[in-house]
Every structure is written in C-alpha cells, then in structure tokens.
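Could you please consider the sequence and fold following this short note?
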Amino acid sequence: MQWCDKTEQVKRWQSEEKAIWYYDPINKKNRRYFPDFIVEYERNDGITMQEMVEIKPYRQVIGPPENPKRRTKAWAQAVQTYIINEAKWKAARNYCEDRGMNFRLITEKDLGLTL
C-alpha cells in the first residue's frame, strides 16, 4: 500500500473492493473472491493500465507436493487451498481478460522479502 501511495506512476488503487464470482470445486458452491488490489498506473510509454494484484505466500502459489512421504491433514488442507486458489485465479484472469486488464500474482520472493 505504501508502494502504491509513493509511486508517481500509480494513478489510483483500491484494496479488496471488487468481488469476483468463482465456482469453489471443493465445496461445490459459487462464491465471491475479493482480490487484494486493483492498481491503475501509467507505463513508461504513457499508456494507462489497470492490473489486478493478488499477494500470496510462495508455497501457496506453487502448491503442495503431489506425492509427499506422508499424506497428513496439513498436506490435505494445503491441497484444498491450492485447488480453491486456482479456481479464484482462473476467474480473476477471465474477469481481467474481458476488461483489458492484467492479473498478477505476487509472492514474498517478488517483493524481496525472502529470508
């Protein structure tokens, strides 16, 4: 949020204000997803762009291992989280594509916050 406020190219931004419908394949229901940010900015060539941004831990973006040594409850929960996130991101990409926007996933590695 500080980056958005301090970056001159950013014209407008909002946080978790847009709802996107997606189908939750785990619970078999339609649900709403609120992406972290929508940012409108001016590129170096002067073109104004809108981008939907979701910030997630890297481990959630790459997903859990397919064949772990032990299939624990934590592993099963991670699989479900990954499947639901994939459904959300697919809906977000479709939403953005229909509106000429970009969709971007950002992790702590992208932000330079890895230890």
The chain has one domain: 2-106. The helical segments are 2-6, 58-62, 73-98. Residues 2-106 form one domain.
